[in-house]
Write a structure and sequence with these properties.
This protein has 15 helices and eleven strands. The chain has 466 residues and is an alpha/beta fold. A hairpin with a 5-residue loop joins β10 and β11. The longest helix is centred in the middle third of the chain and has 24 residues.
């Protein structure tokens, strides 16, 4: 069982269980034993669940799965948000809509994964949960805030794991851990029962080894719940079917630097150029171009929304409890206090900036189908670099190179994915970032599957460290 997920993805394992070529109990017990051993090295899973129900019939029948400690509830358990303040309460009365759909698809939820406190950091080093280590190199971060999920998948403990994305938190860990990670369009997956998340910037899906697992999971989770504030337009078919189709000739624009930013490290520029050549060899039209939007204004709006949501979420979830001096990490407390002071005027202006940015990207995608760049503006992230116990200035300085390509997609609500196509000279993964038109995840999945066939990555995996 130790090497099952080194060779098979979740759909393949689900098929073995469905056809009774692999016992569900055998799979569960063997996977849990392996996860506990890996977790001793990586500190990726915060909680293991003993109350595991029988698997439902579905495409992922019997496949063990873990859910991030953020933006999703599992009935009978707390959702800690990576914070000491919510370590024990509130306990979820019911599954969130997405978790209920995970179970309906056959997934067996066996635990929760580590995250930065409230998902604020692009690393996974909360005081409450402790740092998660990157299986490629234990002195490196797996990224964040879905670093726990990415680390356990990269180590082949599971074929995929739940992840959320408010500014890049699916794609950043995917890039640093050599995985596939797609952030869906705004409203593609319901966030019920919670309300609007980050003015519509929040999304969820997974980190996975294979493209088709992410596509099939999106098929299972997609769709709104009554009263949802946003719903994405219906797809033209299943997302899984999109992975089986050739994408046709795609118009790809590529960037050598972020909008409004400085030129990238030559290694990253070379990675973009190498990916552009791969795309040209597959018959796609590739040219250098970038959208036009006010990156500084979008970034400022993002932080206004993030701070206001942090303050409000603490108040709502705490149900009258007041955080003590040691209940929140210093940067979290600082941004929550800033959020308390955000005026209605400033918040509405920030949401309007999101919408202007979305329209700018919409105009760009009338001329181009895909926008290509690196996922992050650095090759690796050592543990301890992004700190939540220092000043806001230090935190923001280290945050800046992590999100210049990702967060605009959240503000605009468009789908985007990180694909492990390039590698550093010393063998670390470099994720390449592909952004698509709103509501058109099918094209991203089709292109990713074509690249996966032409340049497979599943066989490249980290070795066990001692």
């Amino acid at each position: 069982m130790d090497d099952l997920f080194a060779t098979l993805d979740a759909l393949a394992v689900g098929e073995l269980v469905r056809t009774r070529k692999l016992g569900a109990r055998e799979l569960l017990d063997g996977t849990l034993a392996n996860l506990r051993a890996l977790n001793a090295e990586l500190n990726a899973i915060t909680d293991f669940y003993d109350d595991v129900p029988s698997a439902a019939e579905g495409p992922f029948q019997g496949v063990p799965f873990v859910v991030k400690q953020l933006m999703a509830d599992c009935a009978g358990h707390p959702t800690t948000l990576g914070s000491r303040f919510f370590a024990a309460q509130p306990v979820a009365a019911a599954d969130s809509a997405a978790v209920a759909r995970m179970r309906k698809a056959g997934l067996v939820i066996v635990g929760r994964t580590n995250t930065s406190e409230f998902g604020l950091a692009p690393t996974t080093e909360p005081v409450f949960g402790g740092p998660t280590r990157n299986p490629w190199r234990h002195d490196l971060s797996p990224g964040g805030s879905s670093g726990g999920s990415a680390a356990i998948v990269a180590a082949r403990g599971l074929p995929m794991a739940h992840a959320t994305d408010g500014g890049g938190s699916i794609r950043i860990p995917a890039s640093l851990c050599g995985l596939f990670g797609l952030k869906p369009s705004r409203g593609r997956i319901s966030m019920a029962p919670i309300g609007e998340t980050l003015a519509g910037a929040g999304a969820q899906l997974c980190n996975s080894i294979s493209v088709r697992d992410s596509a099939a999971l999106l098929d299972a989770l997609a769709g709104g719940e009554p009263g949802d504030p946003y719903v994405s337009p219906p797809a033209g078919g299943t997302f899984l079917d999109a992975t089986k189709r050739e994408p046709g000739r795609v118009r790809v624009a590529f960037m050598r630097k972020p909008v409004g930013g400085e030129t990238l490290d030559p290694v990253l520029v070379a990675a973009v150029e190498a990916t552009a050549k791969k795309l040209e060899a597959l018959g796609h039209h590739v040219e250098e171009a970038a959208p036009e939007y006010d990156a500084a204004a979008t970034g400022a709006a993002f932080w206004t929304v993030m701070c206001a949501n942090t303050w409000t979420n603490i108040q709502v979830r705490a149900n009258g409890r007041v955080p003590g001096p040691d209940d929140l990490e210093p940067v979290t407390r600082l941004y929550a206090e800033r959020g308390r002071q955000v005026s209605a005027h400033d918040y509405i202006r920030s949401v309007q900036t999101f919408h202007r940015t979305g329209r700018a990207l919409g105009q760009f995608f009338t001329k181009h189908d895909i926008l290509l760049s690196p996922t992050i503006a650095r090759m690796s992230l050592p543990l301890g670099v992004v700190r939540m116990d220092g000043s806001a200035e230090d935190y923001e300085r280290e945050l800046a190179p992590m999100v210049p390509f990702t967060s605009v997609c959240n503000a605009a609500g468009v789908p985007a994915m990180s694909v492990p196509l390039e590698w550093t000279a010393d063998g670390l993964p470099i994720g390449m970032h592909f952004v698509g038109r709103f509501g058109v995840e099918e094209r991203l999945f089709s292109l990713a599957a074509q690249l996966e066939r032409a340049h497979p990555w599943a066989q490249r995996k980290p070795g066990r460290q001692t």
